[in-house]
Write a structure and sequence with these properties.
Length: 218
């Protein structure tokens, strides 16, 4: 009995322990990286609508506002010149231009101007207008009551259309001292092609006129 061998409970070799720890650490890092990828993809999908909402709510980056009605109260005596700019992105065969390049308006005065667009191709095409104003600080005060930019525009081959913009500059702009020296605003539009237009009625506006109807009203 005195010669009975005792079981050895020696710890595993240090190399084996290090290897196991390394595997555990690598697995944890991989799991964290996978979680970060999932979160980043989710954030990317959420970022676009959130950014658009933020721009509309704050006027960030010159994004104009949407008004549901005309402002209450009389316009102010202070005037600003509103200039109109037009652009067409590649891939859209349209001619697009304002009917007047600029107009003087009193702050708080509702004004209607027209842009004219012609589909110069022999096929039906659809476009959507992006927009902003300059200087960028004016975006929060530039209110649109009606605009062709609110919806997609589908044009028949060779069609010409006059499209309205009904807008005003909100009176609260006079309280923003960053705009104390403001004398001119540029409203800019760029039409982009829409490859898969939504199936819905043509965009608004009772004031919109096709080329044929416009001639009939002269």
């Amino acid at each position: 009995m005195g010669n009975q061998t005792k079981q050895s409970n020696q710890p595993p070799a240090s190399g084996q322990t290090t290897s196991r720890r390394g595997l555990t650490r690598d697995a944890a890092v991989a799991a964290i990286c996978g979680l970060m990828v999932v979160l980043m993809v989710g954030a990317a999908y959420a970022a676009v609508p959130f950014y658009n909402w933020f721009c509309r709510a704050t006027g960030f980056n010159g994004t104009t506002q949407v008004a549901t009605s005309a402002p209450k109260g009389a316009p102010l005596e202070r005037k600003v010149t509103v200039r109109f700019d037009s652009n067409v992105a590649g891939g859209l065969p349209w001619k697009f231009e304002p009917e007047q390049t600029e107009v003087d308006v009193r702050i708080g005065e509702v004004k209607t101007i027209f842009y004219k667009v012609t589909n110069q191709s022999a096929r039906t095409t659809t476009g959507q207008a992006a927009y902003n104003v300059a200087p960028l600080t004016v975006g929060a005060y530039f209110e649109k009551i009606n605009c062709f930019c609110f919806t997609e525009q589908t044009m028949a081959p060779g069609e010409t259309r006059e499209m309205p913009v009904v807008f005003y500059v909100d009176r609260s702009i006079v309280k923003d001292h960053d705009n104390d020296t403001l004398s001119a605003i540029t409203l800019s539009y760029t039409f982009y092609p829409v490859k898969e237009p939504a199936i819905k009625p043509l965009a608004s506006g009772g004031a919109e006129k096709s080329g044929a109807s416009a001639k009939g009203n002269l």
